[in-house]
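Question: I have long wanted to understand how a fold can be written as tokens. Here is the record:
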Amino acid sequence: MKKVFIDGSEGTTGLRIHERLEGREDIEILKIDSDKRKNPDEISKFINESDITFLCLPDAAAKEAVTYVKNDNTVIIDASTAHRTEPGWAYGFPELSDEHREKIKTGKRIAVPGCYASGFIGIAYPLVKQGIIGTDYPITINAYSGYSGGGKKLIAAYEDEGRDKCYSSVRTYGWSQEHKHLKEMKAITGIDRLPLFTPMTTDYYSGMLVQVPLYADLLKKKVSPEELRDMFADYYAGEQFIKVMPYGAEADEGNVLFADACSMWDGMQIFVTGNEDRLVVATRFDNLGKGASGAAVQCMNLVMGVDEATGLSL
């Protein structure tokens, strides 16, 4: 039985990890007293007693928590932005390649991808690796998330009975093009420039849709929408967390895609549509599932050598 500690267990990501671990008989959850959860000595004690520690903390706190590790056998799975592009840290998206999966299995330091980054990288990484787009392609990302992605403060704003009516509309942000996920989007895919990224939150709790439009005449390899869909299907063949949808699957929803359709599910769907001139690739998933807590537990399962989907909803 593995001992697991969740540092930041009262935050949105930490709570969802805890929910996924409840009832499992192969782990023991180490629980810190609520009044000591910010005590460095107490945190250090729990980290070093654990086999696996999840960090569900702001970046600065996550970096500090790593300095507490003295036990060479403790595995750190960090859900913050702090270490996603740091040398020596495995990037927690095992479906990208055999190398990614092996680094997670054998690593002591694992960084869980950001939610928007997961949706984008799930699209862009195969496009680059399979030679469909060049690293110099001018990428644009349009993405929508449930308000839970903004953490406790934004959740409270949306769920306040007396909230301003503006919260019933789409909320776009990140206008300065400095969103914290951009760094990993560029680093993990190997593209030359940061994408133009337009993130939005809307009035539902969880679920995410990330879209990448493509001009056919700017592709390195000419492909039809159907051929592009088949490329993704081949790339992710055998992966239980990635479901590449049949071409035209959006017809089942009235030729639209609802961004919250994968709420409470831990996988990711990929859609391809378009025509001979313009194509669109989209990922749909739960920003708290494959985009956060679910991905963190998937990484833990790999570390433990059990089925990746253990305790998760697929």
Notes: The chain has a mean pLDDT of 96. The first helix runs from residue 12 to 21.
